[in-house]
Automatic annotation (TrEMBL):
Single GO molecular function: monoacylglycerol lipase activity
GO annotation, biological process: acylglycerol catabolic process
Species for this entry: Paraburkholderia caribensis MBA4
Family matches, as InterPro entries: AB_hydrolase_1, AB_hydrolase_fold, AB_hydrolase_sf
Taxonomy of the source species: Bacteria, Pseudomonadati, Pseudomonadota, Betaproteobacteria, Burkholderiales
Signal sequence residues: 1-25
SUPFAM superfamilies per UniProt: alpha/beta-Hydrolases
Name the record gives this protein: 2-hydroxy-6-oxo-6-phenylhexa-2,4-dienoate hydrolase
């Protein structure tokens, strides 16, 4: 059973102000999104703190390890192609995404001969939710590297989307010899929000915001930012995936880890190190994206100068030594979901440009 067939679509009506999602869109942005017809503000399934009850597109395995004195498990999918081409692609999800949201990308890459590894990072989705963890991109990169070593992956193309793009950059900087190619899909972190004037929020403030998360808020934020105002029924499972954890018995644990992760994203920029990336890098950028962490907490003059992806993508391509930039004029923050055909053609072309033995 696929993810899309495993959920009953739930649609909403009234616009409820969004709080605590990736980039925390301003109320004005949410209000401007086209209305989505439907029923109540937060109807839908409830899932466990590790997404118990939500189906993934492939068998989920667990990598068990100890980190910071805690026994943890990291969920991942490992999909073998029918006709291997000798290459492995690792897919790193974003803040409001999971390994499962790579569903169509997994299908396309596997059909093209790539082995695909899609983990859920610690603190996310089907992985452990430690409540006293020192989250850092370095730690998440080490966890990912340990997972890959445990399953015999010595060299791979690292693909990161959104927050996963920041993680992919950190991984590539820490493990350049094991990174055959870097692919960044609308990564956040192409700018330093703190340096541009976005005010700091405490972990407690992030936590209070996360506790207010609803399906309607998620949907309206995603419609405005991920899909450039569009909405289709196949986007709905990803709304319910997130909202279901906030309806379930682990709501507080999920919200707390999410708050810790927002603090990590805000305080650990990677943009200043782009010049140190030594591997071929492919930038796949939807031009309608406006994502910026803490945007709604910023004064209007700061809000006006952040999240401009047409400019940010070009600047990143100039800063990264071996970069190729592909722009999608009409797509938002999640091009792989909004226009899978165009996105995957660009991705496969970009992967093919790098020899298997590079």
């Amino acid at each position: 059973m696929t993810i899309r067939s495993s959920l009953v679509a739930v649609s909403l009506s009234a616009c409820v102000a969004m709080l605590g999602l990736d980039a925390c869109a301003a109320d004005a942005v949410n209000a401007a999104a086209p209305p989505v017809p439907g029923a109540a503000a937060d109807d839908g399934p409830a899932y466990g703190p590790e997404l118990q009850g939500f189906n993934y597109p492939a068998p989920v395995r667990q990598f068990e390890f100890t980190s910071q004195g805690e026994a943890l498990h990291m969920a991942y999918m490992d999909i073998a192609p029918e006709h291997p081409n000798g290459r492995t692609v690792v897919l790193l999800h974003g803040k409001n995404f999971c390994g499962a949201t790579w569903e169509s990308t997994i299908e396309r890459l596997s059909a093209a001969g790539y082995r695909v590894i899609a983990p859920d990072q610690i603190g996310f989705c089907k992985s452990s939710k430690p409540q006293r963890y020192q989250f850092s991109f370095q730690q998440l990169a080490r966890n990912t590297h340990a997972l890959l070593e445990s399953i015999g992956v010595k060299n791979a193309t690292i693909v990161g989307h959104s927050t996963g793009g920041m993680l992919a950059v950190r991984y590539a900087l820490m493990y350049p010899a094991q990174t055959q190619q870097l692919v960044l899909v609308n990564p956040i972190g192409l700018e330093d929000w703190k340096a541009k004037g976005v005010p700091s929020l405490s972990v407690d403030q992030w936590y209070e915001r996360e506790l207010k998360t609803t399906a309607d808020g998620i949907r309206r934020y995603e419609q405005a930012t991920y899909y450039s105002g569009q909405w289709r029924s196949d986007f709905e499972p990803w709304v319910q995936m997130l909202a279901g954890m906030y309806r379930g018995p682990g709501k507080k644990e999920v919200a707390w880890d999410s708050a810790l992760l927002y603090d990590m994203i805000y305080t650990q920029p990677v943009v200043y190190e782009f010049g140190q990336l030594s591997m071929p890098t492919l930038l796949l950028i939807g031009q309608k994206d406006t994502t910026a962490i803490g945007k709604d907490a910023a004064p209007p003059e700061v809000r006006a100068k952040i999240g401009h992806y047409p400019e940010l993508g070009k600047a990143a391509a100039k800063a990264i030594p071996h970069a190729t930039l592909v722009e999608f004029a009409e797509l938002g923050h999640a091009p792989q979901m909004q226009d899978p055909a165009a996105f995957h053609q660009a991705l496969l072309d970009g992967l093919a440009a790098v020899p298997a033995n590079h």
